[in-house]
What we know:
Number of helices: 9
CATH architecture of the largest domain: Alpha-Beta Barrel
Largest sheet: 5 strands, parallel
Shape: globular
Number of domains: 2
Oligomer: single chain
Radius of gyration: 20 Å
Order of helices and strands: HEEEHEHEHHEHEEHEHEHE
CATH class of the largest domain: Alpha Beta
CATH superfamily of the largest domain: Glycoside hydrolase/deacetylase
Distance between the termini: 43 Å
Amino acid sequence: MKKYIKEICIVSIISILIFTIAIVNKNNNTTILTSTGVADISSLSNKKIGWGIMRADNHTQPDVGSSNKKIMDTYEGLYLGNSEQKYIYLTFDLGYEAGYTEKILEILKNNNVKATFFITAHYVNTQPDIVKRMIDEGHIVGNHTVNHKSMPDCSLDTIKTEVMNLHSAISEKFGYEMKFIRPPKGEYSERTVAYTNTLGYTTVMWSFAYDDWDEGKQGREEYGKKKIIDNVHNGEIMLLHATSKDNSNILDEVIKEIKNMGYEFKNIDEFVK
């Protein structure tokens, strides 16, 4: 009987602790629960890290680096899926409209592929009809912040404004709740990833990208196709820029070729670790 009462007391204490932490997080979003107790986010490292990968040969998974992996795994970020599953997760970064997104959406529709589009406030303010189409056609719209600022350079209050102002705008315009975020410029710190978690967001990085974002480096369609196809791997989170004319011209062929290689396109909300 005493043992039973003791167990009830322990469960009650844990429940109260969890409830208290939840209230703290809801009110100021500056604390997190770690394996060693409650931690103040402001005490976490704000060392700026630029996401990078080391590509591998023969369609094997790349090396994302021990530091990247440790932080992303600690805060349940997504960067590389299951090594045994031939799944590809297609994502696009989209700070502004260069005239190619509707073509990209049509290609995705024709190939029955869903993707994630990480957008800024500028994009939603200037292209609301395209954002609505993304949502209506079953794609995921992700948060790329209001102004595309490097988050480690920002205070926690600024990060909250950059993330949640865009979140509110999308919610109010479309009744859509975003839950995935990609740090602008691929720059992050342990502090920024931990903090965006408290705002309800999962960080999504990538395991493949190439220099498609540079408008001065278009007209290299064969180069782009080769880069993409040569680096296909299990669990790949593919980052493409929808501002690339080359990507809009090669996407249909690339998707078909990847499917012919035995891979299946999944969206990020179906992610398998």
